[in-house]
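FIELD: query
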Amino acid sequence: MVSKSGTIRSGIGGWTFKRWDETFYPADLPKKRQLEYAASKLTTIEVNGTFYRSQKPETFASWAQQAPEGFVFSLKAPRYAVNRKVLAEGGESIGRFVQSGIVELGDKLGPLLWQLAATKRFDPDDFAAFLKLLPAKVGSTPLRHVVELRHESFACPEAVALCRKAGVAIVHAESADYPEMSDVTTDFVYLRLQKGDETIPTAYPPDALDRWAERAKVWAKGGQPDDLPRADPDHAAPTRPRDVFVYFIRSGKPRAPHAAMALMERLAES
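FIELD: result
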């Protein structure tokens, strides 16, 4: 990207998906080299496996070795930390995760994604207590956190203000199922685009990719797109360069890598 602009990265969720054997990976590519290949074509991957099971430090180190310089992994935090009636009681699980060896990713460690259950309603006190549990660093490694707020009750100024105070980003989810909140609460923006169509070669039609590329550039340069909903529209985020992470997931998944690559092509042209 240009000077006075953050870095925009575009990618997918995970790198093992059976349909990608047909739509994305070369036919003669060994499965053990799929991460290496995906990382050579994309600039970021959101790791879903960390949501379901713990990983070893040597696993994180191996991932880092297989990806090129500048590549970033975001990690989906474990379900045991977020699938709770009382979020504030997840401290032990949070601590176990951040101490599990994620620092072995080095400068390839991206945001940690805390995806709340779709049935979890906004409780101001409990949510504030949860945000306080998210550590600013592990050892000497700074951490960036982002929350996916999937119940409509979170689409309110109070929830946004709590994230802003904590320095935690809010996922902008383009989804048919969850609230769409483009509020900027920290120094990076995190998008999960979930309206792809596998019958379209790039999952999203060209005009939609054009719009997302333009929005990403606005965010990266410190602005906010004026065509997306915000839960707290009266608050203007500080104008400063921001990193932007864009992930194509769920719907249209067989063509998600092509969407990510098509978006990067548009950004490279500008």
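FIELD: remark
The mean pLDDT is 96.
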